[in-house]
Every structure is written in C-alpha cells, then in structure tokens.
Amino acid sequence: MTEHPNSRQAALDYHAYPKPGKLEVRATKPLANGRDLSLAYSPGVAEACLEIKKDPSTAALYTSRANLVAVVTNGTAVLGLGNIGALASKPVMEGKAVLFKKFANIDCFDIEVDQTDPEKLAEIVCALEPSFGAINLEDIKAPDCFTVERICNERMNIPVFHDDQHGTAIVVGAAATNALLVAGKKFEDIKIVSTGGGAAGIACLNMLLKLGVKRENVWLCDIHGVVYEGRVEDMNPIKSEYAQKTDLRTLDDVIPDADLFLGLSGPNVLTPEMVAKMASRPIIFALANPTPEIMPDAARAVAPDAIIATGRSDFPNQVNNVLCFPFIFRGALDVGATTINDEMKIACIEGIAALARETTSAEAAAAYQGEQMTFGADYLIPKPFDPRLVGIVSSAVARAAMETGVATRPIEDMEAYKAALDGSVFKSALLMRPVFQAARTSPRRIVFAEGEDERVLRCAQAMLEETTERPILIGRPEVIERRMEKAGLSLKLGRDVDIVNPENDPRYRDYWETYHHLLARRGVSPAIARAIMRTNTTAIGAVMVHRNEADSLICGTFGETRWHLNYIEQVLGRDGARAHGSLSLMILEDGPLFIADTQVHQHPTPEQLAEIAIGAARHVRRFGLTPNVAMCSQSQFGNQGEGSGSRLRKAIQILDAGDHDFCYEGEMNIDTALDPALRARLFPDNRMTGPANVLVFAHADAASGVRNILKMKGGGLEVGPILMGMGNRAHVVSPSITARGLLNMAAIAGTPVAEYG
Predict the structure, then answer these.
(1) 279, 185 Cβ separation under 8 angstroms
(2) Which residue ranges make up the annotated binding site for NADP(+)?
(3) Same domain, 358 and 343
(4) What does the record give as the active site (predicted)?
(5) 462-521: per-residue pLDDT in tens?
C-alpha cells in the first residue's frame, strides 16, 4: 500500500489494507495436535460446560466472558454523521473495540443491530448477557438511548454503560473539576449555561449536579432556545427536568454572568459578544465536532483569561471519552461488577482529574511531542496515551464497586492489583519489582552524566516518586531549570536533586586534581585534567563515584559506548573494578530473554566468555529468575572445529572446572537454545531443562544484532544494558533509551553493591 496525500483515501486505505477491517480473532490456547483438539472441543470441552452449569460464576475461570465487552449500536446517532444505519456504523464500532484492547487489554466484539425500536433493541441486548461481562451501548439517538439503557440495567446483572452519555459526562466532570480549581471557583457557586439537550448534554448536567452544582443555577438551551416551564416544542421528560421558570428565551438572554458554558450542540452557537457577558475567568467547554460552538481564538479575543476545552485534538484540553471508558470497564470487569453506579463514575472522575495534576509521564510526553503538558488552564485532563490511567482510574473504580457492594469478585490486595495494572502497560514493571524492592533497602546517590537531557529529568522526577534514591545531575542549572519548566516537572534544584555545574562548581579544583592524580602517568597533564573536568560529564561522574560523592554513574544517553567506557575504566578501574561484559534484558511477549555481551568485548576470549556467563547468571537472579545459560554459536555441539564454536567450547571447559550453581550448555544455535524438543533430538544427554533465558554470544556483533532485532521487530522492551564487573558503580546505556528505561537502570544502580557484580 502506498501513502496517499489525500486524507480521505488514506483513511479508506487504512481500513482496507493489509486486510479489511481493524479486528481479528486469535486463539489463546494451542491447537497443534489431536490432544489439543480433544481438550479444546469434544470431549474435553464438556468438562468446562458442566462446571459452569453447576456454578455459573466459574464462567469467569473457564471462558473469556469476564474480559469480554460487547459494543452495541443501531447506528442512529453515529459521531457527527447522524442516522446512517447499523451497517455503516460498523467501522466506528470496530474502532471502539480496538481502543478497548489498546488501552485496557479488554477483548471486544462489535454488534451492529438493525433495530430502531428502543424496547425491541433492549430485548436483543438483554439476550446477550450469557456471552459478555459488560455491554457498551454506543451511538443510539436520544431519547431512545435512555430507554434502552434503563431497560437493560433493570433486567441485566452485568454493567450496561452508554458511553455517549456517561463517558462524556465523566470526562467533562474531570475537566470541570480542574477548571474550577484553576479559576478559583466551586461547583456549588457557579452558574452553568448549556446548549444541547441530547444524551451527552443531559448526562453531563446530571453529573455536574452530583458534583455539587445547584439545579437552579443550570440553564439549558437547545435549537429552539431556552428550555423553560410550559414549553411544548421538542420536549421530553428527560429534558423537562431542566426547565426553568423564566421569561428568558434565548442563549444570549441567559449567558450573562455564566461561569461555565457547556456546549454539546453545533458550530458557532456561542458568539464572542456572548463570551464578553460571561463571568470573570469564564470556563468554556465548546465540545461540538468537528467545529466547536466557538473557536478558542475567538473566545480569547474577548476573554483572554478564558479556560477552554474542545472536542478536537488540535487544541488543548480535548474532551475525549477514551480517557474514561476503557478504564471504568477494566475496573468493573475485574471485580465482576453487576452495574456501573454513580460512585464508580465519580471515582473515575476523581482519578482522571488527580492524574492531570501530577507530573506528566514521559510516555505521554513522547506521544505528544511539542505540546505543553503542565497542569493549568491549557492542561486540565491527562492525555489518552498516559500509561498511568489504567492503574489509577481502574483501581479507583474497582475500589468504589467493592465499597458499594456491587462487586461479585472483590479484590483482596488493591496494591498488588494496581501494580498488575501498571505491569500491563509498563512491560518491565513486574520483572523489575524485585529490583525496585532491593533498591529501597539502602538509599543510594545516582549521578547522571547527561543531566540536561529531558529523559534524564523525567527519570529524576520518577525516582523521587517511586524510589528512595537521590538523583545527582551534571549540567548547567539554568538549562536544567528551563527544560524542567517546559516539561512540567516539579523538581527543585537543591531540594530534590543535587547539581554539578561543569562551568562553575566549587569542587572543580578537587575534581581535576583527583583526575590528574589518577592519570598523571598516563599522559594526562594538569591542563588536560582541567579541560576534561570542564567538558567531559562522564569523567566528572566517574570521579564523583571514585571520591564517594556518588554511589553509581549512569551515562550514555548520547555518544558511543566505548568512549564512555574508556573514562569509566580510567577512573574506576584504578579502584580494582573491570568491565567484563554488558547484559541486556529483553522483555518479550512470551517472557524475558537476556542477551550478552552486547557492548564491552568485540571478540571475547574463552576466559571472558566464562566470566560473562557467570556475571549474567548472577544478574538474572536479581530479577527473581533462575538462570538457564546457552552459549550460542553457528557451531552446534562441536560440529564446526573453528570460529566462535572453538572459543565457546573452551569457555564451557573453564566453567566445568569451576563450581557454579547455575545451568549452562553449549555451544549451540539460537533455535536449539530456545526449543527444548529440538535440543533433545540433537543432543539427548544435554544438561539443560526447558528453554534458555540467557544467550551468550562469542561476537558483540551477534549479540547486539539479536538485541536490536528483538527490540525493533519483535516488540521487545530492553532493560539495560547492565555493565557487569564494575561493582554496580557505573552503567553505560544506549542512546535509544527512554525515560522509563533510565528509571529501570536507576533501580538497578540503586541496588546495594553487595547485591550486584
């Protein structure tokens, strides 16, 4: 498929290629032989059926129901397209299913129903209860959507959630909570004027009342003007609840002194002249798509201090339901909730609002490069790609479900549950847990050579929130402060982090004299030492560790590994340490795999290979894993006499001569290392059980190549590289490392020296 400059054609191609649609069904169990078939279907499947018949709750154990949502629509109110029918709505529903999977790992089927009678549609939805753990009603016109949801909630014992209503209301509630905080106002004091009497508009007003807004302070308008007592045109019982006893008839009549304008109607409904009549520091939620009720620049022309949200992604504060629905369903499903009640919705609001007030995550910053994401008028709600949403919001929803008695499978350990949720988006979280726990036992000082790098700054922020370590940043204070402010970080120099300014530091003379003393007989003159301590941040960090002013150095966010390693070995090698290899942990879909040596030795000797294997095994145990080390080569158990196989065979002999408490085997091909059945056929008496989890290579090119292929094409997440042999006093990362990767390395560096080699 070629890329088309035409956006319409690009959208069509996206849906058509490489295969039609956005969804497919994949099996979660193997079906490779007759035994698998007999378990998956007849006769083995009968056992699961009988268990569920005996105890219906076991469906959550033996089927996918507890993680399965149906997105149901009749296509009568699709996005901004209106009543386009059930079939034409299918691309939207498939997209909704994709969002469920992407953001909350919830499986989803889209169900488009050709039925416009709301009671008959509700009957169809109710009949689906045995198949699904929850129902997401979508794009059903008002007032029919109210009828469908009411009937389903009355008859069904699983959550039924009309996202157009409640999803919008929840995100509006979160945005309003923070907008009022910024404006210095309170829900109970504000006047609200709203346009749009549809499902979303009414639901938003209902939610705002639950948050403290007074009913008499709400003025609802629609295409016919103010909703007032006695009006008969285009009225229904839901809309009538907001009828005011008044002679005012137009939006222009009721807008004066309004604190909050809530627009869920159509384009250009609110004029600049109306905005000028609003209260000071007006809050304007112009949510019509694609053209809002007023464009932000037009509103700010008459009210420069206005706080504005829209439904568009090209302006700040996009009110987007994806901030809500994946996470409220995740929490509801995980506790087996029978409904989604008001307390769960408010918990969702509070979680979303609180997250926006925290420091922006590095992952969200990377997904929205160039956008200012510091809490305030232009950042009221977090971005959908903030990975913390699932942990914070879903756990809050689950807790509210349990507290209100609608959870059928209560969670005993909420802290562990939240950690598991975080682990579902932070792929390294579960594996890194024992490392973080070990790091907390003895607070250590970690110095970052590239302290001005935004990734390092975000890592330092996260260290304060998640560890007991003290970050030390090498860099110019004014540059660091400017970049922290731009990134919306709350770090304070001197309070939260220590600074070493290469251009002007009171310890400068001590540092260059130390460096000169260490290297005077290696051609380093005082002038060279002074120059290096002004310009070379890796050397400065190494000197700090040597002088015991820091416990560990992290460098390498830019530059070449050998360059950094040269200065580390110059300084810290004088203390008896020696780098004997680097180890990369690759977190893959089916589990962790360690790769060595990726950086230190281009062509390691047998002695070095043995040393690498020993060091790798020691580090693997720090992750709570049992090392299974394969010495990898093109040669297979002696079938090639020369090349890397020869060196690996000698390394095996060296290991055999020692007393080691880990399993190792080789030399062998990678597939042989990872496939126990293949290995058993080729060498039945091999000493390894199960697949290898450590691959040691005799060439750095091979190790680095495997690591990068797994990272770029295999979806692997790298933790490392971990520099072995330096007593955990220095690590050289790769330039592609993320802020989360740096945090992982800080935890590894933060483990007491006795724990690591």
Answers:
(1) no
(2) 78-85
(3) yes
(4) 96
(5) 888 777 888 999 999 999 999 998 888 888 898 899 999 999 999 999 999 999 999 999
The continuous run of DSSP H or E covering 644 comes out as helix 644-657
| Same-domain status, 179 and 288 | yes
- Distances in Å between the Cα of 659 and the Cα atoms of 87, 490, 622 are 69, 51, 20
CA distance 481 to 497: 11
Model confidence band, residue 161 (pLDDT cutoffs 50, 70, 90)? very high
Q: Over the range 427-465, which residues count as b (16 or more CB within 10 Å of their CB) and which as e?
A: bbbbbbbbbbebbeeeebbbbbbbbbbbbbbbbbbbbbe
DSSP string, 533-601: HHH-HHHHHHHHHHTTS-SEEEE-SSS-HHHHHHHHHHHHGGGT----EEEEEEEETTEEEEEE-SSS-
Residue 387 in contact with residue 367, Cβ under 8 Å? Answer: no
Name the 3-class secondary structure at 109: strand
Amino acid at 222: D
Q: Which sequence positions are flagged as catalytic?
A: 96
CA angle 534, 540, 544 (to 5 degrees): 140
Structure tokens at 220: 């609802």
Q: Does residue 19 form part of some domain?
A: no
User: What's 504's domain CATH number?
Assistant: 3.40.50.10950
Please give the annotated binding residues, written as ranges.
78-85, 138-139, 164, 289
CATH of the domain at 244: 3.40.50.720
For residue 705, is it within any domain? yes
Binding region for a divalent metal cation: 138-139, 164, 289
Let me know whether 91 and 139 are in one domain: yes
Residue 627: pLDDT band (50, 70, 90) is very high
Alpha carbons 324 and 352: distance in angstroms, whole number: 8
Query: Does 375 reside within a domain?
Result: yes
Tell me how far apart the terminal alpha carbons of the chain are, to the nearest angstrom.
50
Those residues with Cβ within 8 angstroms of residue 384's Cβ, 6 or more apart along the chain or in another chain:
103, 320, 322, 323
Of all residues in the chain, what percent carry a pLDDT higher than 90?
A: 69
Provide the b/e sequence for 488-504 (b: ≥16 CB within 10 Å). bbebeeeeebbbbbbee
Beta strands in 196-317 (DSSP E): 218-222, 225-226, 260-263, 283-286, 307-310
Note down the domain range covering 297: 166-315
Q: Examine the domain organization and report whether 80 and 99 are in the same domain.
A: yes
DSSP conformational letter for 666: E
Sheet holding 470-474, edge to edge: 498-500, 470-474, 445-448, 552-555, 730-732
Q: In terms of domains, do 474 and 513 share one?
A: yes
Residues 196, 239, single domain; the answer is: yes
- Can you tell me whether residue 197 is helix, strand or coil? coil
Domain count, the chain: 5
